[in-house]
Design brief:
Helix content is 74%, strand content 0%. With 192 residues, the chain is mainly α. It has 2 domains: 47 residues, Homeodomain-like (Arc Repressor Mutant, subunit A, Orthogonal Bundle), CATH 1.10.10.60; 123 residues, Tetracycline Repressor, domain 2. It is elongated, with a radius of gyration of 19 Å.
């Protein structure tokens, strides 16, 4: 006789899933504008849901911050697969690195709040999927001959994170985007 699945095991209804995704997207933008202390009521309003809906999905501010962070990590992992399937290797790597810049911007806002409230396991858990994604893209670009064999995927991430350390500068994102093109150009094989 089949057993009933508990409420927590059920797949969310489509409208509930859309509400959750909309809340996460609005929250990401709100945190980017106003920092980790952005108004949750304003986030609910902008997401076109009631405060009860927001709190049903995310009972605390920390839950929402953590969910936004996880969502960004998941987007990076999914983008690697999508870009690898739909773009030439070097273009896929470039597109993913540009997306990584947006991830860094979100991370800079959210991580301090997360670390103030919990241990760094949440942040450390993001390293593996991020590193796996960039390694897969770099490996593909190496195999295609688009970049040199000695390029280390994690070095590319470190360079982008390094430029983000100047995030107090209003143009750091533009600088990071230029750096992506410099890194891609510098990673190409020498022309004979």
């Amino acid at each position: 006789m089949p057993t009933k699945r508990s409420v927590s095991e059920r797949k969310p209804r489509a409208d509930a899933q859309r509400n959750r995704e909309r809340i996460l997207e609005v929250a990401k933008e709100a945190f980017a504008r106003a920092g980790a202390e952005a108004s949750l009521d304003e986030i609910a309003k902008q997401a076109r849901v009631g405060p009860g809906t927001l709190y049903r999905h995310f009972p605390t501010r920390d839950d929402l911050l953590e969910a936004v962070y996880h969502s960004e990590v998941e987007k990076l992992a999914a983008a690697e697969r999508k870009f690898a399937e739909s773009m030439p290797p070097i273009e896929a790597l470039r597109a993913w690195m540009l997306l990584f810049i947006d991830y860094i911007a979100t991370k800079q806002i959210i991580v301090p709040a997360l670390q103030a409230q919990m241990d760094s396991k949440v942040v450390k858990a993001s390293y593996a999927p991020t590193h796996e994604a960039v390694r897969a893209l770099v490996k593909r670009a190496i195999q295609s001959g688009d970049i040199r064999r000695d390029v280390d995927a994690v070095d590319l991430l470190r360079a982008l994170v390094g430029v983000a350390s100047f995030s107090s500068s209003p143009d750091w994102r533009e600088s990071a985007r230029r750096l992506v093109d410099i890194l891609i150009a510098g990673s190409r094989p020498a022309q004979a």
